[in-house]
Amino acid sequence: MKQYNKFLIIKFFLIYIIFLFVSGCATKNDELSIENINDPYEGLNRSVFSFNNNLDEYIFKPVARGWKTLPDFPRENLANLAETAESPLDIANAILQFDIEGVRITLSRFIINLTLGLGGMYDVASSDMFEIEKRNEDFGQTLAIWGLPEGPYTMLPIFGPSNIRDAVGRGVDTIFNPLTFVFRMNNFGFETRLPQPVVSGADQRAKYLGYVDDIESTSLDFYATMRSLYRQKRQQDINNGNVEKKKINFSMPDYGDIPSYEDSLEIMIPFSNQENLENIQKYPKKAVPSSNYPDYNEPNTKLLTN
């Protein structure tokens, strides 16, 4: 029975992969219609967003505030243990991405913190001695590196902003997490696995308590702002903070229908600045913004008027 369930999970995953590839091909010529492609279920997503906000207000925020009141010991040590437990997943995804630098960073952090950090209780790798900062890698990023499109924007209950690609990645990470296999081999129950995600979630929510509150109080549309921030954050994660997009090209290059530089400017410039297009073209290319994400301090953009 268990083997049959595993087969269904793998089959479901493969169907999703095929769906993403097909949707990527189908929308290749319509990439400029960002909102129509990425948030076709906005009404449903807003309802889930409201549900999540209520959970956050009455459950997650109080837990995060309580977590923040704990002394550094054991709060920081428990958070470090939870982070170290995620390291094998970071390493595995860095390998799948053929990211040599990522493998070096994630593997070095794991070994150093596991040994010198007393099993991961202390983040020795981030100290002045080693200066190896944490790098998060997940299967959603791996799928992006492999060239799969993100698919429609999706607001998941409890987990928050996502898209089809990242939702699939989250499921794969949960099922194939090396730590999960260790728990199963030792017959550890659900109550044994629960503390790690709870500690990790409480610690992350505590770090952004004031930040999220400020965004909510200053945003004209909190949902749209969080959607934009999520997309930018995920793109930054995929690129590992680099400007150039990190992506593995499995296909032959297509040199047809290459958009002109002027076309790209029309995409990024707000309506109010279209008359200044000729003046902007005089600037060097690197002076032009590289992001198509909306600036919510300038509501008169194409993305917000759709």
Strand order of the largest sheet: 1-2
User: How far from one another are the termini?
Assistant: 49 Å
Instruction: Name the helicity range.
Output: 55-70%
Average pLDDT: 79
Radius of gyration: 22 Å
Strand fraction equals under 5%
Largest sheet: 2 strands, antiparallel
Low-pLDDT stretches: 21-36, 260-306
Taken in chain order, the helices and strands follow as HHHHHHEEHHHHHHHHH
Would you mind describing this structure in some detail?
The chain has helices at about 1-25, 35-40, 40-70, 70-95, 100-115, 140-145, 165-175, 180-185, 190-195, 195-205, 210-220, 220-240, 260-270, 275-280, 300-305; strands at about 155, 160-165. It is an all-alpha fold and about 300 residues long. The chain has a domain at about 35-240. A two-stranded antiparallel sheet has the order 1-2. A hairpin with a 3-residue loop joins strand 1 (about 155) and strand 2 (about 160-165). Helix 6 packs across helix 7. The model is unreliable at about 20-35 and about 260-305 (pLDDT under 50).
Attribute tags:
single chain; 306 residues; mainly alpha; two-stranded antiparallel ribbon; 61% helix; disordered C terminus
Secondary structure layout:
Layout: H1 2-26, H2 34-38, H3 42-69, H4 72-96, H5 100-115, H6 139-145, E1 153-156, E2 160-163, H7 164-176, H8 178-185, H9 190-193, H10 195-207, H11 209-218, H12 222-239, H13 261-268, H14 277-280, H15 302-305
Antiparallel strand pairs: 1-2
